[in-house]
């Protein structure tokens, strides 16, 4: 999620996206609209990272998760913004990162205390003339770029009070994510016709990522690990997630 001189994966992805959008516009008669939103999951509560807060000490309002019968889970009342360039996106990412919950722990002087989800909705519309009549075709794509907070042990992170509670909620949601991924992979490997109950609602994170993990989608994960010997257990635990995701089977259709 880094920016500036330490550009992270999400800004790099957005920069590449807009370069391809401009290329597509120049080659084909197509209109492209890009909208973004940015929120965090902090202690199982959702906060809009792009919402304006007048006072820095003011408490962030919590948003609720709803489920659409066709589109799946969504965050009610989440602000969305139209962006026309990578510079627009970069500005919103900078604002969102400033509003994100971070704190100093024994393992990291600026530890993320929440998971964040940066969503891009891309709409392509193209007009074709068929037998003298114009027909407009629209294609919608949704991309969820998720920055997961790292799992931590209390003995190493040296957390107490509120930091300890934050760490417990982070670990709980990561365990729920691991369980959902394992069951989806098991369903893919054993028998695609046999339905297994997937406990998406065990955490806010897995509920909101329901369509990204088991719906009409493709899922990819990048694991960030430490080379230090004393972090070997955390490293092995982290590597388990992308290994299992590799077995996920998703049926993609338009």
Automatic annotation (TrEMBL):
Annotated PROSITE patterns: KINESIN_MOTOR_1, KINESIN_MOTOR_2
GO biological process, one term: microtubule-based movement
Domain of life: Eukaryota
Record GO terms (molecular function): ATP binding; microtubule binding; microtubule motor activity
The Kinesin motor domain, residue ranges: 1-248
Keywords tagged on the record: ATP-binding, Microtubule, Motor protein, Nucleotide-binding
Keyword ATP-binding recorded: yes
GO annotations of cellular component type: microtubule
PANTHER family found in the cross-reference section: KINESIN-LIKE PROTEIN KIF14, STAR-RELATED LIPID TRANSFER PROTEIN 9
Family under the similarity heading: Belongs to the TRAFAC class myosin-kinesin ATPase superfamily. Kinesin family.
Protein name: Kinesin-like protein
Organism: Lottia gigantea
């Amino acid at each position: 999620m880094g920016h500036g001189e330490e550009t992270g994966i999400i800004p790099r992805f957005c920069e590449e996206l807009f370069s391809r959008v401009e290329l597509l516009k120049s080659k084909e008669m197509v209109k492209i609209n890009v909208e973004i939103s940015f929120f965090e999951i902090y202690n199982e509560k959702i906060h809009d990272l792009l919402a304006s807060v007048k006072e820095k000490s003011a408490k962030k309002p919590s948003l609720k998760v709803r489920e659409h019968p066709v589109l799946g889970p969504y965050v009610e009342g989440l602000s969305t913004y139209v962006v026309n360039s990578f510079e627009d996106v970069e500005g919103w990412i900078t604002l969102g990162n400033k509003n994100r919950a971070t704190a100093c722990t024994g393992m990291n002087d600026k530890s993320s205390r929440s998971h964040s989800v940066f969503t891009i909705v891309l709409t392509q519309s193209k007009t074709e003339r068929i037998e003298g009549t114009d027909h407009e075709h629209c294609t919608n794509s949704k991309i969820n770029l998720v920055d997961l907070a790292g799992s931590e042990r209390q003995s190493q992170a040296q957390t107490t009070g509120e930091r300890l509670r934050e760490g417990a909620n982070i670990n709980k949601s990561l365990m729920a994510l691991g369980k959902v991924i394992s069951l989806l992979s098991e369903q893919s490997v054993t028998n695609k016709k046999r339905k297994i109950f997937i406990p998406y609602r065990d955490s806010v994170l897995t509920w909101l990522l329901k369509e990204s993990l088991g719906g009409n989608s493709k899922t990819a994960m990048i694991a960030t690990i430490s080379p230090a010997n004393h972090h070997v257990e955390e490293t092995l635990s982290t590597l388990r997630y992308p290994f299992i995701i590799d077995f996920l089977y998703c049926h993609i259709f338009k």
